[in-house]
Amino acid sequence: MIMKKYFKLMSLFLGLMVCTPAFVACGDDDDTTTATPPTVPSDTSSTEVTTADLKGTWKYGFYGLTYVFTDNTFTVTTDENNYTANYTLKDDVISYNYTLDNQPQQGTANIYLLYDKNVLVMKAKPNRGEDYSISEAATILYRDGKEPTTLKSEIQGEWHWYMNGDTTYVRGAYKFNGDNFELIVTPWGQKYTGTYAYKGGFVTLNITNGYTSREPGSGDGWGEGDLDSKTLEGTWYTLNRDRWAFEPGMVEPFLVNGTEAYGSLANLPCVFYKK
Question: What is the DSSP letter of 62?
């Protein structure tokens, strides 16, 4: 069930973001401090996108998501469904419309080509669901038959994924330091550490330790516990192996574009910002 939700999120978030209980349900964002997405630096590997650049087949790693672009359409295929959208492209913004389950859909997304035009990123602000919304999400596609050359030096440092654009709530955070990583999932009050490998835009996390910010004996369930959602400071207790939410060796996409990075966490597409 989780993987099915993931397929749908990655392929349909531009117009049909699916609610999922994996993270905290959304509320009214009017009183939050909105994060301003950084401008893509001039030395980024992103280049202006043309329809000629898009034509062909693009895939999302090993998850079975496929996009096939022509001059004015793209066809999306997942394990659950497929559809064809009409699109136009202007100033690195793609506008599209399609029908799915007899429901018309339309929207726009910023579009980037990275790593010698072998990685295509479509970043958008998804529609709010009844119980859940996220501020930004990105579909990451790899040109069929191509693997980007990525380096560990690109991802070093701390990266934050914010809750509904609110910079006072860090929903998830990666810290990459040499060959070591730290992953914090704030709504779960959990932290994982270990070593990692990075190849072709994917991080493989060899998790060796798990921690919780919830005091032992506080009962089952989720919650930040003693973890500060802004500073990520708190008291950490060893988390028993049978309580880990992730398995050692889990693989997640992580691709850098200036001070932004695109990836996924807990089956949700994410846009991270360099701290």
Answer: T
Backbone angles phi, psi at 16, to 5 degrees: -135, 55
What's the pTM value of the predicted model, to 2 decimals?
0.78
- Asked whether the CA dihedral 20, 25, 30, 33 is positive or negative, the reply is negative
Spans in the chain with pLDDT lower than 50? 1-44, 128-133
Helices (H), the chain: 2-16, 51-54, 152-155
Query: Tell me, what's the pLDDT at 31?
Result: 35
Quote the Cα angle for 49-198-201, to 5°. 15
**Where do the H-state alpha helices sit in 125-175?**
152-155
| Per-residue pLDDT tens over the stretch 237-274 | 999 999 999 999 999 999 999 999 999 888 788 899 99
HSE value, Cβ hemisphere, 13 Å, CA-based, for 192: 23
User: Scanning the structure block, which residue is given the tokens 């709010």?
Assistant: 128
